[in-house]
Structure formats: structure tokens, C-alpha cells
Design a protein that fits this description.
Helix content: 40-55%
Structural class: alpha+beta
Length: 170
Amino acid sequence: MTQMLLTGPKEELFSDALREQMDTWIAKYPEGQAQSAVIPCLHILQDANGGWLSRGIMDALADYLDIPAISVYEVATFYTMFELEPVGKHKISVCTNISCMLCGSEKIMNHLQQKLNIKPGETTQDGQFTLKEVECLGACVGAPMMLLDRDYHEYLTPEKIDNILDGLAS
């Protein structure tokens, strides 16, 4: 995705399109409660910045929402859906919590590491994939499971993973 972030004074901080998207979320909350829009605004900014959030972007959001920067950092560092370093074009998050572990998430993680030739927290040399090990993604009934970008994939097997990843190249 094309980066739509701008630099400059607060009024010119983000493109008009980004401000419009964020303002739509901010308007959903009572006046003076802009902090409630932090999560959707972080999603918008992360998507506009190639899948990750720099400290400058988080500081800019805090200014835009007129809240302390720590209020943005707390959210961005708590949730695994936010990235604070550059990531690959596709982010693979494998759940390794108890249900997925009991159903074979270790085998799934090993298969992905071998297939992509990376370890959790790393990105492939071609910049296509970042692999993450995460706690519960809330799909225990479909264990083992992974989140690929924003899509859940359940009842995983190595063959199913190969088909999913091969389908991205098409």
C-alpha cells in the first residue's frame, strides 16, 4: 500500500484521506473521548505505512487525538496485531496457546519455519512473509489455526498451509 503519511504541522500531519478515516472513528465516541478511537486509528495508520507503526506515527496520532503519547504506546505495544518494526507483505501469526498446542500448532510452526526458512519474529529475504508466534486468537474450536494478514485459517495441516501460501502467488 502506498504510504499516505505526511510530515509537517499538526494540521498537515496526515493526508486528507487518512484524517477523514480517523475522524469517522473519532466521531463515534462522545466529545472528549478521542482516546477511545486509538485502536481503529492505529489500524488505519499501520495499513497506510506498509504494515507497521513508527514512533513518529504514534506520536503524531497522540497529537492528533490530543492525548498523551503513552496512551497510544500502551495500546500499540499490548496488542499483537500492531507492529513496531517493518514487516513483510504478508504477516503470518500462528496461535500457540493451549488449544492450538494440543492440536498440533508446534508441527504447524515447524512446517512454516522450514517452508519459509525463517524463525518467529523474522521476515523472509524477499520481504514477502513475517512469521509470528502469538497467544490466543480466539478460534480455539478450529485449532490449530493462524491469522494470515486479516484472514483466519483453521484446522491447519502442512498441506493446507502449502495450498494457502501457494494461492497467494496466484
